[in-house]
Predict the 3D structure of the following.
Amino acid sequence: MTSTYAVLSEGLEKRFGEVHALRGLDLAVAPGTVCGILGPNGAGKTTAVRLLTTLLRPDGGSARVAGHDLVREPEAVRRSIAVTGQYASVDGGLTGRQNLRLFARLHRVRGPAERAAELLDRFGLTESADRPASTYSGGMHRRLDLAASLIRRPEILFLDEPTTGLDPASRNLIWDAVRDLTADGTTVLLTTQYLEEADQLAHDIALVDKGRVAHTGSPSQLKSLIGAHVEIVVADPDFLVKAAGVLDQLTGGEPSFDHDRRSVGAVTRDTTLTLPRLVRELDAAGVPLLDASIRPPTLDDVFLRLTKESAA
Amino acid sequence: MSMLAYDGTAMLGRQLRRVRNNPGLLVLTQTMPITMLLFFGYVFGSALAMPGEEYRSFLVPGLLVATAANGIMTGMFQAAQDVHRGVTDRLRTLPISRAAVPLGQAVADVAVTAAGMVPFLLVGLAVGWRIEGSALQAVGATGLLLLFRFATTWIGIFLGLLTRNEEAAGQLGGATFILPLLSNAYIPTEGLPGWLRTLAEWNPISAVTTALRDLFGNAPVLEGAAWPVAHPIAGSLLWCAVLLAVFAPLAVRRYGRGEG
C-alpha cells in the first residue's frame, strides 16, 4: 500500500482501560495542505495526534505517515515529522538559544549556532534569546516551540492547539509561519478549539466526535451542509404564522418561532435566495416586516449542529 | 552506538547547561550533607561511645554514600519533571537514540555529584577526617562512590518515568532519606538487634560505605557482618552491577515506550 497521502489512517483504535478514546479513525490528508481536526473536548483529537506522532501505540487499525507504517517504521516516521503542542514542549531550564542549539544538534544540522540565531530572529526572540525559557510569556514560549519544530523543515508538522491562550500578535505570527510552510510543501495537521483558526488556515477539516471522524470537507463544504439562517421580525405577532408560511415556501426549512422577539427563523440550503427577494415576497403577502436577515453559517454553527446531531 | 554517543553527549550538554543556568540549586543541595556532618558530628558525636573525631571520620564516608543514594531522588524528580512539562514527549518524537536521553541525564548527574563532593570533603578535612590509605585506594573509593551514584540515578529515572508527575516525585523522593538510616552510614550496625542488623547490612548503602571507610583507611572491615559488608569492595561492585542491570534497561524501555 503506497499512498499519495501525507497522512492516511484506517480504523485507528486506542483504548485507555475502560475508555475507548478512538473507535476507528479514518483520516486522509493530502500533501502540502493544512488539515484541521476539530471536535469537542474528549473527542479524541489529542489521542489521534499522539498516535500519529509515535507517542502512543494503536490498539487496532493502521496508519501511514509520510508513507511509513506507524507501527513498523516509527523511526522513519520520526524523521519526517515535527510536533508542537500543548504537551510537547521545549526545556524551561535552558535559554531560548540553548534550546534551539540542542535541537539543531539532535537533528544533525551543520552550524547549529547559526540555525538557532536565524530562527530566533524569524520568531522575534533575539532579544530574549539568552533568558531561560521558563521566564518567557505564553506567546514567546509557543513561538520558541514552533521554532524548535522548524530546525529542519519537516514533511509533516503536527500542531496541537498552537494558539490557545495567545495574544493576537503571537497568533498572527504563528499563522503566517504555517502559511509559509505549506507554501513550501509542508503538510500541517492542526488541532484547534478556535473555529476561526480552522477557517483561516485549513484546506480541509475533519470533524472528530466520540473517537471517529464524523464529517470531512473544506470549510465551505461543511458550511453548505448547514445552510444559511434566515430570520425575520414582524410588527404584529398575529402575522407570525403567515410569515412562517412564506418562509416555508422559500426555504423548505422548518420555521421556528420566537414569540418574545416576534420573530420566525428557518434554515435554507438554497444559495440563490437573496434579501431583496425575501423582502418582496413577504411584503407581497402583506406581512408587516420590521427586520430581515440572511446570515451565512459560521464554522461554529457547523460545529454545534453536527456535534449535536451525533449526540442525538 | 555512535548515534547513542552523539545524542547522549548532546543530552549531557543539556543537563550541564541547566545546572550552569541555575547554580543556586547546586549550592543548595551541597549544604545539606555539610550541615548533617556538623550536626551529627558534634551533637550525636558527643553522645556516642566513639570519640568525637573518630566518629566524624566514620561519618564522612557514610554521608558521601548517603548523598550518593540521593541519586534516586534527583533522578526521579528530573525525569518526572521532563515528562510532566512535555520535554520527554518532544524528545520522543525526534529521530534520536532512545537510550540517549536517560543516559545523558545519568552521566550529567554523576559529573555534578563529583563536583559537589569537593566542598563537602574540604569541610570533612576541617573537622578531622583524613585519607589514611594510598592515593590509588582513594581514587578507587571515589570511583566506587560515583559508580554507586550512577546506579541510584537510574533507579530514580525509572521511578520518575513511572510517576510522571513532578509533585508526586518530589514527595516520594523526600521519603528516600530513610534509606541511609537503615544502614551503617551514620551508626555502626553491631549494636542493632539481629534481624535489624541483617536488614541494615544487606542495604547496598552499607556495603559501599564500608568499602569507602576501608579504602580511605577510616575504619576496619568488621568480622561477622553480612557478606556484602564483610567483603565490601566485591559487595559494592556486585550491588552496583545488579542495580544497573535491573534499572537501566527498565528505564530505557519505559522511556521508549511512553505510557502505552
Q: What stands out?
A: The interface with chain A takes residues 7, 10, 13-14, 17-18, 21-22, 82, 85-87, 89-96, 257-260 of chain B (CB under 8 Å). Chain B has one domain: 2-257. The two ends of chain B are 26 Å apart (CA to CA). The longest helix of chain B spans residues 135-163.
